[in-house]
């Protein structure tokens, strides 16, 4: 029996699937085998957020099933923000604001040891990416050349689909891309995802349509919930964050 057979699948993304894993627990299994180090970093980031007071599922451990590594964690019942908006589109502003407020709270959390440096990853990906136009590469590297490092816990994929509306309040999930860096870089990443992010391939057509129509309002609501920032400092992060997103090679987002 494969890792997926006989298990209730609760969700999926580009890199992982989530299955029920006994009473009150789930397991998030990577689609590709290996990457145990990445899972350990994800588990550490999620635990750090929880210790700092940000609502996140309790991490129970790391397991391997049929060659697929996964994190076992507390099961959080409820709808993610995208599904909540899909079912009640008039809630887009409330959901977006809640996501922004929660992300602002996370921006105060200090990253645990062992996470990758965000600014180093940005520079490396811009320098080596085949998806970044050659005509733009030097200009982007110049633009990010003196950006500040940071010590904050950066989620790097913070959007409504990664916030669960549980009976006890909103809960942040999916710390797979977490890094150590400057909070404004994480904020910039979310703004780009709100503006241009495309859902996973198996996202229902109706949900895709709602994302396309409502993304502008959701982005404004998120910014409202996040609160004021240094606009000039935020804009300095945009070239590098956009180039990073291009490097992920998501064809639908390239325009």
Write down the overall geometry.
Answer: globular
Radius of gyration: 18 Å
Order of H and E elements: EEEHEEEHHHHEEEEHHH
- Summarize the amount of helix as a percent range: 40-55%
What is the terminal separation in angstroms?
A: 42 Å
Report the strand count: 10
Low-confidence blocks of residues: none
Backbone structural class = alpha+beta
Strand order of the largest sheet: 1-2-3-5-4
Please report which band the strand proportion falls in: under 5%, 5-15%, 15-25%, 25-35%, 35-45% or over 45%: 15-25%
Mean pLDDT: 89
Query: Biggest β-sheet: count, sense, barrel?
Result: 5 strands, antiparallel
Number of helices: 8
Concise overview:
This protein is of the alpha+beta class and 255 residues long.
């Amino acid at each position: 029996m494969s890792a997926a057979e006989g298990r209730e699948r609760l969700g999926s993304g580009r890199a992982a699937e989530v299955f029920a894993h006994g009473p009150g627990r789930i397991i998030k299994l990577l689609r590709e085998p290996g990457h145990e180090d990445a899972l350990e970093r994800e588990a550490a980031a999620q635990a750090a957020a929880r210790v700092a007071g940000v609502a996140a599922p309790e991490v129970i451990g790391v397991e391997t099933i049929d060659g697929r590594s996964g994190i076992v964690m507390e099961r959080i019942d409820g709808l993610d923000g995208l599904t909540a908006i899909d079912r009640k589109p008039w809630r887009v502003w409330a959901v977006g604001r809640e996501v922004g407020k929660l992300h602002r709270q996370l921006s105060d959390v200090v990253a645990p040891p062992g996470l990758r440096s965000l600014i180093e990853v940005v520079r490396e990906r811009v320098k080596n990416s085949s998806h970044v136009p050659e005509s733009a590469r030097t200009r982007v590297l110049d633009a990010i050349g003196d950006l500040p490092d940071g010590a904050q816990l950066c989620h790097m994929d913070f959007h409504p689909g990664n916030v669960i509306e549980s009976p006890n309040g909103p809960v942040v999930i999916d710390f797979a891309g977490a890094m150590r860096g400057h909070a404004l870089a994480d904020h910039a990443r979310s703004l780009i995802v709100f503006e241009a992010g495309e859902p996973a391939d198996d996202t229902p057509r109706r949900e895709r349509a709602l994302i396309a129509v409502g993304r502008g309002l959701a982005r404004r609501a998120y910014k409202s919930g996040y609160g004021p920032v240094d606009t000039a400092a935020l804009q300095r992060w945009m070239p590098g964050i956009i180039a990073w997103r291009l490097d992920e090679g998501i064809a639908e987002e390239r325009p």
